Amino acid sequence: MATSPASTETGLKERFFRYFQHEVTALQEQMERLNQMSISGGERTDAVDHCLAGINRLSHEVKDASNYIPAYDQRTYSEAIKALSEKLQNTRNAFNPPKKFQFKSRKTVASAISVNNAPVPTSDTANTNSSSAPTPLANPPPKEEKQQQQQQQEAPADNVEEDGIDGIKADNMGIRRPSFSHATKITISNHSSLHIIVPPSASHATSSGTLSHLRGCVVDLSAATTTEAPSAAFAALYLKHIKDSLIICGQIAGAIHITDVSNSIIVTSCRQFRMHDSKNVEVYLHSASRPIFEDCEGLRFAPLPDVYMTAETRQAANQWDQIDDFKWLKAEPSPHFTLLPEAQRVQGEVWTEKVGSGRTSLDDTLKAVRVQ
């Protein structure tokens, strides 16, 4: 029986509404965590840029959906986007207040001339005692200067492990096990052909995580997120610019954001799954909500392997196969993803005996999961 145009349009509106709600919630959660992020290593800047990009993307998507979303709903969505932009700006101002531009005034002269009408001083007439001379901005006020000094002193502590993974001695299988002992976050970037297993002792550093610019790597974060500590799960995890790799993310209490990943395998348990601009990726997933992707192709989804399940995830509903391709607006199924048949999935003994044992080399691990 053919689907009527009216029912198709209703389905699109409902799907957009659900997607929009998920994205707004995720962006709000990211903004609330901004003031907890370190300024060293560009973590806070990256997070702000991610929020800006998300807001901009939502704005464009509302415009793209205008052919099937009623005008009233479009206004509602636009107002929500405006509120997000204002919230982000207010959040940024809270931890980085704009500097005030002040003019010195002479108490003995009452001037009725506005600042806009004041003459611009030239090199011949400029005078530091003039009422039109601005307060120098090169030297911040004492309070701001003290804050900057504290931030500079704190920066190296957060950045020790980020730049030190190459220097960590590998075991006889070539595996590095960074402890992130001085960090509150896990950042692994700019590596190729490395096998990294983050140990349980790094569970204190899972306030957030970023993995970026990796090629031909195996990264296993699961042990650090499955300890008995209630805060062990990542609040959020960001994967970007990754190729030919196996990434085992562990437990994520919030959202995982994946951008520009190709020819790789991702294993994760999360509350929200978001993927953009990726291709040829196998995803072994436990998701508490419907996974969403856009501008991707060649995705293959399977349920989370049993070895990475926890008591909590075993009891929770898994929507790993309720996938929304937001750029596919037709009634028929999206051609950009498939559900991986059981016979084609990586088998349980591979996860336990090869990947999870810590006794298999990088090349053998990648071959076992068919990344190479």
TrEMBL record:
Protein name: C-CAP/cofactor C-like domain-containing protein
Stretches with biased composition (Low complexity): 121-136
Species name: Neocucurbitaria cava
GO cellular component: cytoplasm
One Gene Ontology term of the molecular function aspect: tubulin binding
Similarity annotation: Belongs to the TBCC family.
GO terms, biological process: post-chaperonin tubulin folding pathway; tubulin complex assembly
Keyword flag Transferase: no
Location within or outside the cell: Cytoplasm
UniProt-annotated stretches for the region Disordered: 116-174
Domain C-CAP/cofactor C-like: start-end pairs: 174-328
Assembly description: Supercomplex made of cofactors A to E. Cofactors A and D function by capturing and stabilizing tubulin in a quasi-native conformation. Cofactor E binds to the cofactor D-tubulin complex; interaction with cofactor C then causes the release of tubulin polypeptides that are committed to the native state.
Keyword field: Acetylation, Cytoplasm
InterPro entries: C-CAP_CF_C-like, CAP/MinC_C, TBCC, TBCC_N, TBCC_N_sf, Tubulin-bd_cofactor_C_dom
